[in-house]
Design goal:
The complex is a heterodimer of chains A (673) and B (73). Chain A is built from 30 helices and nine strands. Chain A is α/β, with parallel strands linked by helices and 673 residues long. In chain A, strands 2-3-1-4-5-7 form a six-stranded mixed beta sheet, sandwiched between helices. In chain A, strands 6-8 form a two-stranded antiparallel sheet. The longest helix of chain A has 47 residues. The radius of gyration of chain A is 29 Å and the shape is elongated. In chain A, 47% of the residues are buried. By secondary structure, chain B is of the alpha+beta class. Chain B has one domain: Ferrous iron transport protein A (FeoA) (SH3 type barrels, Roll), CATH 2.30.30. Chain B is 16% helix and 40% strand. Chain B is built from two helices and six strands, in the order ββαβββαβ. Classes of the chains: A alpha/beta (673), B alpha+beta (73).
């Protein structure tokens, strides 16, 4: 028998960290609410039973507002897990237990895993878990997912509870007069409307009906009698409590929690203000916050692009060109390999894949910085700082999080939009996130900068990021008033405490992102480099070409090239590079590198024959703003949910890229001649 | 009568009622903004909005236009 155990808890309570501990996997963890947007499954380790653990997106309550929250709720209601592990951030226990009071109504065995107990102990507070168990009617256990303490005990507890489920008495959390009304309504529903939503747990069904939960109401299909009964019950509750139904229910849940916690907590010693809080005061100082933020961003790009690049690019290029290619040619030549084979390996594979690998050290450093931003809790703070600005442009401060994630890769960035409650803002953010340059595009800028703008490399690359932010704002402003218009949603965001990034998290995240990059280099880019080499080395008659101009690829390129003449790069090399860039953005430099490798004076010299500084700038702008790679496009289509919005987004991204590059080239070439 | 919006950073007061309907009301309550709870204003964002408040042992940020709908006593 295969058991299902669901991991449920508030956003940012450490579910994914715990999931990784319990299953031995390496899923992505961050310190902002809403890291997990899809449910993920894994097998519980170190147990005698066959147990699947499901990591669900974090929820604050069972009344779902955003897509990822609906995923969690539907799973709990429709898939009926055998056991719920309710993970509770013990350092924020009051708000976290609110969800527990709702989960209790699902009639499913539950274990409360009190996470971050190390933080609580540091604050000088001790928790009596027996007392909590007595109040809530389900067992608790103290753990720290981060420090991996209490994990074995939790696994044992899960195994025990799943083999011998105990029927527990649900504690009465509402005051007696409300309990009486709820009980009456319960009985009424069971008697009169037993067939309605019969697979829902009774307590949950009654409460949600009384709360007039939209999802639940949409499923009862105009049962007018029931609606009238709900109305009656609501009136009774209101007259007894003196408040409206929503406040009454939320209020008694919180009162119950406060009571239970008071009984269970002991303050061992007074808490002193710690380093993190002091740091927070400085970072978020009203006047210093923005300058500090821009300073951080500048440092990130300065270090990863200029400082690291200065050391690594030259060294790797030297290794590829002077060591690898020379030796491969020699060894294969000695073995008697055909010259076309040597050319394919050197001019195709090594040149194409090598062009991408050159930038790995810089990407590693960039990803380290991004992961520190994510893990420290700074992201939610940036969302807080920027909300006012983003709101003006039709977005919300929360839109900023997908965009920062998008600095690494647009795919998780676009997926992170699911934490936005408002459909309009969510779609708009999904369309705008690709304007934020992803890691794979960075090598193109660095390459162009090193050839054409030697003196001001960091500034050139930084200017691109400023332009992309500017594009996001202007597009947000325009689109929120035209294609994606509608009401703005509320903004309500939990600000997690700052914490020191954990080395283990950083290493895992950086490795996962770099692994993606390397896998693409070894698969798509490897294969495409071979195909490109073939297409550029032979004519349509399969004869080896004298010059690349006569190749099959050149013929394709020349068909498209005229489109880009007004932008200043209407040559077949740039056109083919842009086309292959649709498969993966790294392909752009691989392609140019393969196509220009045979030229006299090496790659940089060949590049400066293809581009002028102005057309190079126009080219990088086009690359920056034009639609993302296939993977990101597919994700965008999925998140937008329909072809109409998708085709619009595609047309908008391409049109804008073309327009901006056109202006830059036409104006620039007149100024700089 | 004053609202959460009227509090300066460092000041605290208790919630009396929430005077807005719909999803925002439900969400505020889920986040622990219920009658009687004590809320302290932590800070204001660089552009003057939103604000960050502290309640039930955690930090929550919300816009001034929503803070205006939370009546305090």
């Amino acid at each position: 028998m295969k058991y299902k155990v669901a991991l449920v808890g508030n956003p940012n309570s450490g579910k994914t960290t715990l999931f990784n501990c319990l299953t031995g996997s390496n899923l992505y963890v961050g310190n902002w609410p809403g890291v997990t947007v899809e449910k993920k499954e894994g097998d519980l380790k170190n147990t005698s039973e066959n147990i699947t653990l499901v990591d669900l997106p974090g929820i604050y309550s069972l009344a779902p507002y955003s897509m990822d929250e609906i995923v969690s709720r539907n799973y709990l209601l429709e898939d009926k897990p055998d056991l719920i592990i309710n993970i509770i951030d013990a350092s924020n226990i009051e708000r976290n237990l609110y969800l527990s009071t709702q989960l209790m109504e699902l009639d499913c065995p539950m274990i409360g895993a009190l996470n971050m107990m190390d933080v609580v102990e540091k604050k000088g507070i001790s928790l009596d878990i027996k007392s909590l168990e007595n109040s809530f009617g389900f067992p608790f256990i103290e753990i720290s997912a981060q420090k991996e303490t209490g994990i074995d005990e939790l696994i044992q507890m899960v195994t025990e509870n799943i083999k011998h489920p105990k029927k527990r008495e649900m504690p009465k959390i509402s005051p007696p007069e409300i309990t009486a009304i709820l009980k009456e309504f319960d009985e009424l529903v069971q008697g009169k409307y037993a067939h309605i939503l019969e697979h829902y747990p009774m307590a949950f069904r009654s409460i949600k009906l009384i709360e007039k939960d939209e999802e639940v109401l949409s499923k009862i299909h105009e049962s007018f009698g029931l609606l009238a009964d709900i109305y009656e019950t609501r009136k009774k509750i209101e007259s007894v409590s003196g408040h409206d139904v929503d406040s009454t229910i939320a209020d008694y849940r919180y009162r119950f929690i406060t009571r239970s916690i008071e009984n269970a907590t002991k303050i061992v010693r007074e808490n002193t203000i710690d380093f993190q809080e002091k740091l927070d005061k400085v970072l978020m100082n009203r006047y210093a916050a923005l300058p500090i933020f821009f300073l951080f961003m500048f440092i990130i790009y300065y270090v990863s692009i200029t400082l690291v690049g200065a050391v690594t690019i030259g060294a790797i290029e030297w290794f590829i060109n002077e060591v690898l290619i020379v030796n491969v040619a020699q060894v294969l030549g000695n073995l008697g390999a055909a010259s076309w084979l040597i050319s394919m390996i050197n001019d195709g594979v090594i040149t194409g894949v090598g062009a991408v690998l050159t930038f790995v050290p810089q990407l590693i450093v960039l990803f380290i910085f991004i992961s520190i931003l994510e893990d420290s809790g700074y992201m939610a703070r940036v969302a807080f700082m920027m909300d006012r600005v983003f709101r003006r442009f039709g977005l919300s401060g929360k839109s900023f999080i997908p965009m920062v994630v998008g600095l690494g890769c647009s795919v998780p960035g676009i997926m992170a939009t699911r934490t936005l409650e408002n459909e309009r803002e969510r779609k708009l953010t999904a369309v705008l996130t690709p304007f934020i340059s992803c890691g794979a595009k960075m090598p193109i800028y660095v390459l162009m900068a090193s050839v054409f703008f030697t003196a001001n490399q960091t500034f050139l690359v930084f200017s691109l990021y400023i332009i992309s932010l500017f594009t996001v704002f202007v597009s947000g402003f325009i689109l929120s008033k035209t294609w994606f218009k509608g009401a703005d949603s509320g903004y309500l965001l939990e600000i997690p405490p700052l914490r020191l990034p954990k080395l283990k998290n950083t290493v895992t995240q950086v490795w996962q992102r770099i692994k993606e990059f390397l896998i693409r280099a070894g698969t798509i880019i490897f294969a495409a480099s071979v195909v490109l080499w073939f297409l550029q080395s032979y004519t349509f008659g399969f004869q080896p070409v004298q010059s690349a101009d006569q190749s099959m690829l050149a013929s394709f390129g020349k068909v498209i090239a005229p489109i880009f003449i007004p932008l200043g790069f209407g040559n077949w090399v740039a056109s083919v590079a842009l086309l292959t860039g649709v498969a993966a953005k790294e392909m752009i430099i691989s392609t140019m590198s393969v196509l220009l490798s045979g030229a006299n004076g090496g790659f940089p010299a060949a590049l400066s024959q293809v581009f002028t500084p102005v057309s190079a700038y126009s080219f990088v702008i086009f690359v920056l703003l034009a639609s993302p790679c296939m993977a990101a496009l597919a994700t965008m289509k999925k998140e937008l949910g329909n072809w109409k919005d998708f085709i619009f987004a595609l047309a908008y991204q391409l049109g804008l890229a073309y327009g901006v590059a056109l202006i830059i080239y036409q104006v620039g070439s007149r100024i700089f001649g | 009568m004053f609202t959460l919006k009227d509090l300066r950073p460092g000041q605290k007061a208790c919630v009396d009622s929430i005077v807005v309907e719909g999803i925002m009301r439900r969400k505020l309550m889920d986040m622990g903004v219920t009658p009687g709870v004590e809320i302290e204003v932590n800070k204001t964002a660089p552009f003057g909005d939103p604000i960050e408040v502290r309640l039930r042992g955690y930090a929550l940020s919300l816009r001034k236009k929503d803070a205006q709908n939370i009546i305090m006593i």
